[in-house]
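Example for tutorial group B:
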């Protein structure tokens, strides 16, 4: 009788030992799926951004037009932007510009990454949007640290005088990723707030 009891206790202890390992595996799998997988978009945006910039540098002389499409609506040009996104901040002194547009964006990016990994409330869609923003941020920060001329911009779009702009400030793939993913992220937050408000009203 004691032998049966002993074997039963051993089996029970083995089962209890397996429970934490199984939960750890499930937690690890969930971490990879929810937090690491969206960072694939970060890598894709960074590679596309840097690859397109290298292509522009090798094929189009600086401050010239490489190609035009639909008349002059879309032009592929080669310019350097020492400012921030969409050529803003070019007129600032070099020292202040270096501080504002290199160190501070890097700090912000580190904070965003910290929030990304620590926050468990983001939806899947929101995580992919944040990952796209991180990819765009990394693309331009890389230029600021490793290209003395500044960030490479090459997409030039005619704006027909809207908001007083004949042409939209020249930008690149990193800028576009930050803008598009940022817009989608804001829209997802607004949508979540609307749904939450409707749910509260229905409960009342």
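The residue assignment follows.
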């Amino acid at each position: 009788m004691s032998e049966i009891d002993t074997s039963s206790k051993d089996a029970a202890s083995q089962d209890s030992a397996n429970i934490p390992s199984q939960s750890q595996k499930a937690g690890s799998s969930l971490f990879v799926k929810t937090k690491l997988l969206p960072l694939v978009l970060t890598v894709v945006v960074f590679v596309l951004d840097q690859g397109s910039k290298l292509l522009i540098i090798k094929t189009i002389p600086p401050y010239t037009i490489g190609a035009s499409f639909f008349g002059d609506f879309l032009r592929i040009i080669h310019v350097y932007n020492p400012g921030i996104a969409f050529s803003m901040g070019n007129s600032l002194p070099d020292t202040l510009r270096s501080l504002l547009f290199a160190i501070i964006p890097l700090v912000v990016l580190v904070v965003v990454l910290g929030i990304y990994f620590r926050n468990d409330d983001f939806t899947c869609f929101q995580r992919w949007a944040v990952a796209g923003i991180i990819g765009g941020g990394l693309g331009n920060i890389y230029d600021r640290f490793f290209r003395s001329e500044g960030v490479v911009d090459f997409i030039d779009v005619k704006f027909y005088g809207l908001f007083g702009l004949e042409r939209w400030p020249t930008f690149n793939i990193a800028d576009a990723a930050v803008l598009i993913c940022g817009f989608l992220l804001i829209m997802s937050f607004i949508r979540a707030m609307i749904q939450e408000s409707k749910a509260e009203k229905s409960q009342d």
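The first strand starts at residue 65 and ends at 69. Compare this with the pattern of hydrophobic and polar residues in the output above.
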